[in-house]
Amino acid sequence: MFKYSFAVFLFLCSPSVAFTDLIHNYPVQARNQLLSYFQCANKFLTDMGTLQPHAYFDDIEPSLPVQCGEYIKAATFTLKNAGLSPQMTKDKINAEYKNQRPSLVRRFYHSQAKALTLTTPNAPQNTKNTDIELAKDKANECFAKHAIDIMAYSDEKAEIGAEVVLTRCEVELNGVADAIFAQANRPKNELEAEVKTYYEDRHRKIISSIVTGRVTLRKGMLEEEQENSKPPNKL
Fold first, then answer.
1. Which CA distances in Å does 68 have to 27, 159, 229?
2. Which whole-number Å values give the CA distances from 81 to 20, 25, 77, 78, in the listed order?
3. pLDDT (tens digit, 9 = 90+) per residue, 85-144?
4. Which residue, among 42, 48, 20, has the nearest Cα to 104 in the 3D structure?
5. pLDDT digit string (tens) for 58-75?
6. Where are the domains of the chain?
7. How far apart are CA 42 and CA 60, in angstroms?
8. Cα separation of 78 and 28, whole Å?
9. Cα→Cα distances 12→84, 110, 137, Å
């Protein structure tokens, strides 16, 4: 199984905008405009990774100029007014994008991995109870947090990883069980069966999330490794 070190996990999960020295030499206004572009791009890619958890970055990237291009136009205007030629302005901005693209790739695939982990099937109609749903939501947040840890820097089998996640979320699981058993108007054996079914469903879902998430994170890493062999992308 593909293994990530903890450092790589932090690298994947902490995309940042850190400008190169090229841009530091230019007007504050241009730097702020470019910062606004990358902040816009990060938000857009996070949203798209959540909405399209099986898409590829290269499929989404062409939409960036439509979503955030106003900031690039503004920065271009500012740099030209500062004395740069049109070609030099274009080259500098493209170089900055090439420098920042790996962090955009990480942002996109991390949001995909998180979305895949958080996705849960619709609850059966007989469990539409507010206390139960709140307890399940809390448990799902715990599952997502620890499943991402497992998929990112552990090479244990997914089945073992799922057991680790459930153990770490024992308090939240007990909260779900308590909420289910609080339904005094239902037979005890029926409540016990519901708790058992919930646990088994979560176990299967976490296994699937770990397997799928590892593939997604690896996909992002492999795309990033190919960056140096690609020509700069135009904004």
1. 20, 42, 26
2. 21, 14, 6, 5
3. 999 999 989 888 988 888 888 888 778 777 766 555 444 444 446 888 889 888 988 888
4. 42
5. 888 889 998 999 999 999
6. 6-117, 121-218
7. 12
8. 10
9. 35, 7, 25
